[in-house]
Amino acid sequence: MNFSGKKVLVIGMARSGVAAAQVLSKKGALVTASDIKTPDLMQDTIEQLMRSKIEVWAGSYPEIKKESFDLVVVSPGVPLDIEPVQRAYNLDLPVIGEVELAYLLKKPQLEMYGITGTNGKTTTTALLKEILVRDGQKSASGGNIGTPLTFLVDSMDEGVIAVEVSSFQLETVKEFKPHICSILNITPDHLDRHKTMEAYIQAKTKIFVNQDADDFTILNYEDEVLRSCSALTKAKTIFFSTDRVLDEGVFVKDGFISARINNKTIDICNVSEVSLRGKHNLENILCATAMALAANVKPENIASVLKTFKGVRHRMEEVLIHNGVTYINDSKATNPESAIKALESFDQPIILIAGGRNKG
User: Fold this and answer.
1) How does the average pLDDT of the chain come out, rounded?
2) Residue 120 within any structural domain of the chain
3) Given this model, what pLDDT does residue 197 score?
4) What is the CATH number of the domain that holds 278?
5) What dihedral do alpha carbons 42, 47, 50, 52 form, nearest 10°?
6) At what angle do helices 15-26 and 43-51 cross, to 10 degrees?
């Protein structure tokens, strides 16, 4: 899509908003960036954007008129019910997020594989990216983690991006169509934003709404919500399960991570050989394995990464062993389900240090 000369308002100047504004400006768009934070709280960001010839509003928003803007890009942390966003909707201005923008900007030879779910997204995304790299595919990861997606699509002409996608990011997708996508699980979270579980589920399932019969949707068979959601996708569905052997899908049988796809059984590796601990990480492993098989990755390359992948920071991260006590940083476990699964992965006595806020 050609954005040259288009008048674009970016609402929210956090990491993804800044990326969207800078890439759009580079593409010739006339960009205005705004944030409710006052200038004294974001001076470095303001200077960074102004160097890119971007008009900046800090502490307020510009007046939104039909003739003022051709497009509004909303950062994922910005609620859609705030006045400027609602004003844009009422004027029938297109309102999208950074993930949708990145999809519109990407070159045809660049694929996106999307990963969402309440828990496990980051680990699965990082794991899938490492598997693709081991298989010799040009690959990167981004989205809700690491490098903003718009920066990645601006720097890559071909290959695959493993994209972690949150429910906030999925709220504003319209054409986003990953060739392979997965939903790891759905449990209550972010209800302070989505208000109801129905709305939260609807946001999550938007990851596959544009897929067709040539695409793949990977779902957790042990999640009752996702089993019922499988009827909603037009893509080929591949289930994974930690608890049973499936007629088709990825599962554990006799201690082995195995797959049965198109009536062919493949043994990947023994569960005892994988480096990540806990049943919740086994779900992540099975999901990444299913996505990799859908991408025609060689089983031996999947196995090689599963045996060596150590995980990501702040997620079951071993940070210290002192006087026989192991200290684990799992600070990204920001909902009860995630924390419970982490605790259940240990046999030893545990002292839990926990805190946080109510997300509904």
Assistant:
1) 90
2) yes
3) 84
4) 3.40.1190.10
5) -110
6) 10
